Structures are given as structure tokens and as C-alpha cells.
């Protein structure tokens, strides 16, 4: 199969979808790889690095899409990329369609088969292609929150870990999954006082063990969160429902309970955000203020550390890319039911129920969309 790797064009995005190691794996398996010139520069990878492993370097995105059948990306396609997609293409990338009806419609109209990293599951129901970026995003969320609490950045002017004689900052993390756990580890390492909220008691027990009792684990009832908000300096939203729009856990009215110039970091923003007042921002302009509360809602947090993120992501995605290239979409999803769950759009139709529900469209089965006989 011919695999295309275009340069990411989303604002402040420096990651790339394939490393030279991935090119080598594909070439050794008999596939052709077409990398857009400069695609890896943001992650410290040169065209020569790719060429040395057998990739063909093409001058622009038009060529990468034209040459390839399988398009591998990092972030959701931007309008100019959607326009390049054809029914012959398979797109493999993060999509986050539940929060973007217009992108969903555009991908349907393209006729391409679109597989979302974030809804691929393993045999235990985990999200193996979302996990590495969730780890990075969780760690960045705390780092960014600590930075935004500094007075010159519009924050309260408090050091996350305090000093002897002065209390540490209070950090609330809503959601105890991969993002939340990693955010908590960094907050604890910075010596903050940490509260982690989740509705799954078994998960709270696991986190209590993982943190060795250093963080308070709390059941995420609306009242419990509301009663704790007045004491918080930093709140990190890390709520995830597989493939669906993130639920709202803090309303605008509740902002009035918080300390002036406290900070909200919404890691769920790719899925629509878990705070009512969240809206997407970029690394170039990461924050805004609502009712005296600083909001940090960057949609591609891991893009700020592309060398770490690119290698972490492609370590996870590479086996799937090789499998799809070798077996074809139908062969790969037949052999791997978890990969089949990643198919969000095929044959001009939505094939993942939570996305269909979120954008108000009908849903068909993957087999029906791909024309597979029952």
C-alpha cells in the first residue's frame, strides 16, 4: 500500500504522524511511504532522516494525498485537507468528531474511510492510541496551570508547591483517567495539595494506591465539587467519554464560587470541553478570562513538546499503520475488533454511535457502510 504523511497544518502543531522507524517498518513490509518535505522538522526529523529509511520525499500536501491511499496524520484534518480526500483514501488520525459537526459533514462528503485514534480500543476496552497523548497532556496541564497562576500571566500569584511557612496551592483534578492521573503525579511532585475526583469508586481505590495516599481521592458528585471550588487555585478538567462529547462538570454560575484569578485548564476541550465557559485556544494565545477566572483551553497541548509527543504517539500507532497497510482496512478491522471501533466514518456515513448522537446524524454499522455482505 502507498502511505502518505503530510505536514500538520493546525495552528501551533509541530508533531508528525510517522517517525523514520515507522517508515522503515512499512518499507520492510513492502509498502511505499510518501512524506511531505519538511513534515518532520517540528519534531527534529529531517527529510534526509526519512529518505535514509526508504521514504520518498514529495514537495507538498497535494502530492502526498495524490500518491497515497492511506493518509496518516496527527490532528483532525483542516478544511484544505478535507478537500483533498477522496473515496479511495483511508484517513488515520485523531478526529474528535463529537465536538465538530462541520468536520463530520465534510468527511462524510469526501467518501473517505476515516479511522479515529481516540476510539480504537484494546482487548480490555482501553484506548491505546489516546493514552500516550493523554499522558503528555496530563503532565502539561499541571505545568501550564502552575505557570498561569503566576501574576504576570494573569494568575493569583501563587506558587503551586508553596514554601516552608506558606501553604501550597490547592489543585482539583476532575477525572481520574490517564490524563487525571498524570496531572496529579506532576502536581504532587510540585508539592501541591491535590484532590482527584471521579465517579468510579474502583478507579479511586486504584489511584489512592498509585499516589500512596498523598492525594485526596473524592467522589465526583456535583455538590462535592461545588463545595470544594472556593478553596481551589487550579482546576484541571480531564473528563472523557469514549468518542462522545465531554460532559460539563463546572458551570458558569459556579465560577463565582472560585477565587479571583484562579485557573481552569480544560484538557477535554478536543471533545467539546468539560467547563461551560470553555472555548478552544492555541499555544500562541492560550488563555482568556471569564468572570475573573483564567481559562487555558489549548486543543493540542501535546503539540508543545513535539519531540516527546511524536515518538510517544508513533510508538503506539505504528503497529496499526503497518497492519492496515498490509491487510487493507477490511482485513485489518476483521482481524482486530478494537480497530473496527476506530472507524467513525465510511462510505459517506457515520459509523460510530456516540459521534452520531453528538452531531445529530443517523448511524450505520461499519460493515454496512463498507458494503460488506452479512
Describe the structure.
This protein has 374 residues and is an alpha/beta fold. It folds into 2 domains: 2-119 and 306-369, 3-Layer(aba) Sandwich (Rossmann fold), CATH 3.40.50.720; 131-299, Rossmann fold. 35% of the residues lie in helices and 16% in strands. The protein contains 14 helices and 15 strands. Strands 3-2-1-4-5-6-14-15 form an 8-stranded mixed β-sheet, with helices on both faces. It has a 7-stranded mixed β-sheet with strand order 9-8-7-10-11-13-12, sandwiched between helices. Helix 1 links the parallel strand 1 and strand 2 (32-36). Helix 6 (131-148) crosses helix 7 (178-189). The radius of gyration is 21 Å and the shape is globular. The mean pLDDT is 96.
What is the compact description of this entry?
With 374 residues, the chain is of the alpha/beta class.
Task: Name the descriptors.
single chain, 374 residues, alpha/beta, Rossmann fold, 2 domains, eight-stranded mixed β-sheet, seven-stranded mixed β-sheet, 14 helices, 35% helix
Helix content: 25-40%
Inertia-based shape: globular
Kindly report the average pLDDT value.
Answer: 96
Secondary structure tally, helices: 14
The SSE string, one letter per element, is EHEHEHEHEHEHEHEHEHEHEEEHHEEHH
Q: From the helix content, strand content and strand pairing, which structural class follows?
A: alpha/beta
What fraction strand? Answer: 15-25%
- CATH superfamily of the largest domain, please? NAD(P)-binding Rossmann-like Domain
The CATH architecture designation of the largest domain is 3-Layer(aba) Sandwich
Amino acid at each position: 500500500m502507498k502511505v502518505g504523511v503530510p505536514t500538520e497544518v493546525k495552528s501551533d502543531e509541530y508533531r508528525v504522524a510517522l517517525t523514520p522507524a515507522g517508515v522503515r517498518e512499512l518499507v520492510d513490509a513492502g509498502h511505499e511511504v510518501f512524506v511531505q518535505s519538511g513534515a518532520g522538522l517540528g519534531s527534529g526529523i529531517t527529510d534526509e532522516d526519512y529518505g535514509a529509511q526508504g521514504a520518498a520525499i514529495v514537495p507538498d500536501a497535494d502530492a502526498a494525498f495524490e500518491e497515497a491511499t492511506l493518509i496518516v496524520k496527527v490532528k483532525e484534518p483542516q478544511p484544505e485537507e478535507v478537500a483533498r480526500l477522496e473515496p479511495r483514501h483511508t484517513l488515520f488520525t485523531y478526529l474528535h468528531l463529537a465536538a465538530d459537526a462541520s468536520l463530520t459533514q465534510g468527511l462524510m462528503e469526501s467518501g473517505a474511510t476515516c479511522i479515529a485514534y481516540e476510539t480504537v480500543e484494546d482487548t480490555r476496552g482501553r484506548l491505546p492510541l489516546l493514552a500516550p497523548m493523554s499522558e503528555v497532556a496530563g503532565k502539561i496541564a499541571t505545568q501550564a496551570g502552575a505557570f498561569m497562576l503566576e501574576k504576570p500571566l494573569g494568575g493569583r500569584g501563587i506558587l503551586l508547591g508553596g514554601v516552608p511557612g506558606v501553604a501550597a496551592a490547592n489543585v482539583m483534578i476532575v477525572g481520574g483517567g490517564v490524563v487525571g492521573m498524570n496531572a496529579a503525579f506532576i502536581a504532587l511532585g510540585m508539592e501541591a495539595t491535590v484532590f482527584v475526583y471521579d465517579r468510579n469508586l474502583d478507579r479511586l481505590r486504584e489511584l489512592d494506591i498509585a499516589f500512596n495516599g498523598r492525594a485526596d481521592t473524592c467522589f465526583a458528585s456535583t455538590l462535592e465539587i461545588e463545595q470544594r471550588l472556593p478553596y481551589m487555585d487550579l482546576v484541571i478538567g480531564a473528563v472523557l467519554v469514549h468518542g462522545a462529547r465531554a460532559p460539563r462538570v463546572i458551570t458558569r454560575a459556579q465560577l463565582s464560587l472560585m477565587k479571583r484569578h484562579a485557573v481552569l485548564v480544560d484538557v477535554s476541550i478536543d471533545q467539546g470541553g468539560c467547563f461551560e465557559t470553555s472555548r478552544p485556544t492555541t499555544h500562541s494565545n492560550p488563555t482568556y478570562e471569564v468572570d475573573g477566572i483564567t481559562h487555558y483551553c489549548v486543543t493540542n497541548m501535546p503539540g508543545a513538546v513535539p519531540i516527546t509527543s511524536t515518538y510517544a504517539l508513533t510508538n503506539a500507532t505504528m503497529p496499526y499503520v503497518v497492519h492496515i497497510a498490509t491487510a487493507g482496512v477490511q482485513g485489518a478491522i476483521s482481524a482486530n475488533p478494537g480497530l473496527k471501533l476506530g472507524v467513525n466514518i465510511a462510505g459517506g456515513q457515520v459509523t460510530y454511535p456516540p459521534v452520531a448522537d453528538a452531531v445529530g446524524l443517523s448511524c450505520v454499522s461499519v460493515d454496512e457502510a463498507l458494503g460488506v455482505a452479512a
